[in-house]
Amino acid sequence: GDVPVDNALLQLYVDGRRAAQTSLQLDPGAAATKVFGFTLEKSGFSSARIHLEDDDLLEDNDSFITFYVPENVNVGMVGDEAELFVLSLAVAAEGRESHFLLKRIPQASLRSASFLNFDVLVLCDVPAFDRQTVEKFKEFVDNGGGLFFVLGDNVDIRAYNNTLTSILQLPKLVDVIGSSAGGEGTLLLDKYDATHPLFTGVFETQKPEFVRPEFRFAVKVVPDENTHSIMQYSSGDPFLFEKKSGEGTILVMTTGFNERLSDISRRTIFAPLMTRILAYAGTSQTIAGRRFFVGDEIRYKLPPQDVNRELEIKRPDEKYDRLKPAITPSGAWIYYSQTDLPGVYELLADGNVKYQWAVQLDPREMDATPVALQGFTDNASTIVLQDNVILNEFVASQRHGRELWKYFALAAFVLLIVEMLLYREKGEVPAD
Fold first, then answer.
1. Could you tell me the CA-to-CA distances from 413 to 90, 403, 404, 426 in Å, in that order?
2. Which residues of the chain are modeled with pLDDT < 70?
């Protein structure tokens, strides 16, 4: 708008409880970002509402979000035993219960293994994958799982490019930097994206001081527009990059943990970095990636164990709608299109929350910027009134239609005259 906002109250409600608040100042036409800090009191599904104090337009003063916090992160690990052992030590919590449940998957049985019980898969220095396994990876990550690839010196670059990078739409592996034969490090850990969620709360300052790991070996990758370099080497090549796929995320580290390749496993950054990577990749589906607006159809693929349960949608107005799943060749699906209110919609199976969606008002409906008349009429079925139109007569004509009796009376009068002329021209008809 064209009016400044001064000290507007912005409040955060989590699961119906006010968790934080702050004030907001905005110049005309400007935007601002506010960060709220709060402690979540439970695991599982939660929802939050951001509320802006009342102004001239009340409808857009609330925004919603849903998220899921697992009790534990189930991690499946495949690959080099020595490097997986180092990773296990890094994420083990000393003196307290760990929230990571680690399970080894034999590389030989990876093709037939089920990933349903895992939140994230770690693929550490695996030489190659067959196409069927990579297709399973694709389905796993598209449905919200996380993949973490660690590229060591056993990786077959050609095999990765033929299957993994093409199916998962990852940037191709180009070459090898350095050597795994030992010697001095050729690369240092350099820049990183401090705004990425991986680093939230890790460092006390914006530019922390820590011993930079040295790397003797790395796989060179040229990132594309669909990938995000989170950390880089001193050469500018990515050390850790991310790719979003479906509702999940893929993280790729371009070197390994083996001491032949680097000394990162002996540096202080290693344990918090590995912990954050597994937590981030394993909970990538906690916040739905797609935004839903009022009127959008919600679609959800049901797990097989929920197909025969009593299914309901709990609406923002506390009403319930019964649901019946649609059975398709790809599985059982829920389709729900009665999203006529903004707020949180919950899918319940036998009374237990299975999923949540946040539905917002489309921001385009709240945009009060004037548009050109031509553009408006081209995109909407409208009638434009001119300045000289008498409004009450126009509205009456739209409600009751146009009066046509005058035209019919005129037509009848014309036909009567025509009939009289024809009779006159014909003359009197003699009687039989």
1. 100, 18, 15, 20
2. 93-97, 180-185, 201-209, 284-290, 400-403, 425-432
Distance CA 80, CA 265 (A): 15
DSSP state at residue 99: S
Residue 311's DSSP bridge partners are 323, 349
As a whole number of Å, the CA-based R_g of the chain is 33
Encode pLDDT of 115-162 as tens digits: 988 999 999 999 999 999 999 999 999 888 899 999 999 999 999 999
Query: Residue holding tokens 């030992």?
Result: 182
Dihedral of the alpha carbons of 3, 5, 6, 10, in degrees to the nearest 10? 160
For the segment 199-220, what is each residue's pLDDT rounded down to a tens digit?
Answer: 876 665 566 667 788 898 999 9
- Please name the amino acid found at residue 413: F
**Cα dist from 126 to 57, 157, 168, 375, whole Å:** 56, 11, 16, 56
* Gap between the Cα atoms of 37 and 255, Å rounded: 34
Distance CA 318, CA 345 (A): 9
Q: How far apart are CA 83 and CA 77, in angstroms?
A: 10
83's enclosing H/E stretch is helix 81-91
CB contact at 8 A, 3 and 30: no
Burial class (CB in 10 A: 0-12, 13-18, 19+), 51: middle
Report the pLDDT value the prediction gives residue 93, as an integer from 0 to 100: 62
Alpha-carbon gap, residue 323 to 349, rounded angstroms:
10
Crossing angle between the packed helical segments 81-91 and 270-282, to the nearest 10 degrees = 90
Distance, CA of 21 to CA of 49 (rounded, Å): 12
Do residues 193 and 227 lie in contact, with contact meaning Cβ atoms separated by under 8 Å?
no
Residue identified by tokens 């199916």 is 167
Amino acid at the residue 6: D
**CA–CA distances in Å: residue 120 to residues 142, 207, 244, 346:** 12, 30, 14, 25
* Distances 34 to 4, 247, 284, 371 between C-alpha atoms, Å: 17, 25, 22, 30
